[in-house]
Design goal:
Helix content is about 40%, strand content about 20%. The chain has about 290 residues and is an alpha/beta fold. α7 runs antiparallel to α8 (about 235-260) and α7 runs parallel beside α9 (about 265-280). The mean pLDDT is about 90.
């Protein structure tokens, strides 16, 4: 009934950790964005319930997750980045819920620690007191209707149909974009606060790729931010939203010539931010860019 999809980019350490604890009754698809065919051979030999799809290039989040959805053969698909700590209790809980209740487009567990960051938001008044209680397998699951879900998401394929992730977005703002599009079609998004997990943001890759990953994130966060606001509002609104980022980045870039050595990595990180903004403004594709 549920297929688990994990998106990996130089994340073999996380994939091995996750597969060692997940019940092998679940079908699992690993979208390997780093062309690591050795990982495919290793994993598929060890786990008969796992298919590793090795991509010839880094597809990013949107294309990678869309591929996972398309490869799955079950009505529900649970999408995950690799840098999560998640228990079988969550998988079994979601499975129990969908056996009783499927009137949703997306459903998600919640972060165990939401003091700093949350994986969902409620903006509209109608969702302030919109709890649904589902009784399944001798447990009560409380679902809260929300306006946005990030990252780790159970997708109802029947509900979303052609509303997949926008593949113009390489990474960042893609779940915000999908949430907004689904709600505009009067589809429901829920979180279940009975089911919790940990997400270790920014640690999906091996440490040796840290510098490249930082440039990557700096570029794509700014590109996607501008793209999102231009898509859902207009060019000038997006320009207003991105201008503070541009001014801060440009100021830091100029200061770096006085405070950083020639060839400083910090200057490269700032330059990636500036390029992301400029590429977004001129509508240049986001796939490599920085």
């Amino acid at each position: 009934m549920i297929t688990l999809v994990f998106l990996s980019f130089h994340s073999a350490h996380h994939i091995r950790r996750l597969l060692s604890v997940i019940d092998q009754k679940f079908k699992i698809i690993v979208i390997e964005n780093s062309s690591d065919s050795n990982l495919k051979d290793e994993i598929e030999k060890k786990y008969k319930n796992v298919h590793v799809e090795v991509c010839t290039e880094n597809l990013g989040f949107s294309k990678g997750m869309n591929l996972g959805i398309q490869l799955s053969k079950t009505p529900f698909v649970f999408l995950n980045p690799a840098d999560v700590e998640i228990s079988n209790e969550v998988f079994y809980g979601l499975e129990s819920i969908v056996e009783k209740f499927s009137d949703f487009a997306m459903l998600a567990p919640v972060y165990k620690d939401r003091s700093i960051h949350s994986n969902f938001f409620i903006w509209s008044k109608k969702n302030q007191n919109s709890d649904i209680e589902i009784q399944a397998q001798g447990k009560n699951f409380i679902l809260n209707e929300v306006d946005f879900i990030d990252g780790t998401i159970l997708i109802n394929k029947e509900k979303i149909k052609n509303e997949l992730f926008d593949e113009n977005m390489f990474i960042y703002f893609e779940t915000m974009d999908l949430s907004k599009r689904l709600i505009s079609k009067n589809l429901k998004l829920y979180v279940c606060k009975n089911l919790e997990f940990n997400h270790y943001g920014g640690s999906s890759h091996e440490n040796k790729f840290n510098n490249e990953a930082k440039k990557f994130r700096n570029f794509h966060y700014n590109w996607s931010k501008f793209y999102y606001f231009k898509k859902h509002y207009n060019f000038f609104y997006a320009l207003r939203k991105i201008t503070p980022n541009f001014i801060r980045a440009l100021k830091n870039y100029i200061l770096s010539f006085f405070t950083k050595k020639e060839g400083s990595l910090e200057r490269e990180f700032i330059l990636a931010e500036i390029k992301g903004i400029l590429f977004g403004i001129i509508s240049k594709k986001s796939n490599k860019g920085y």
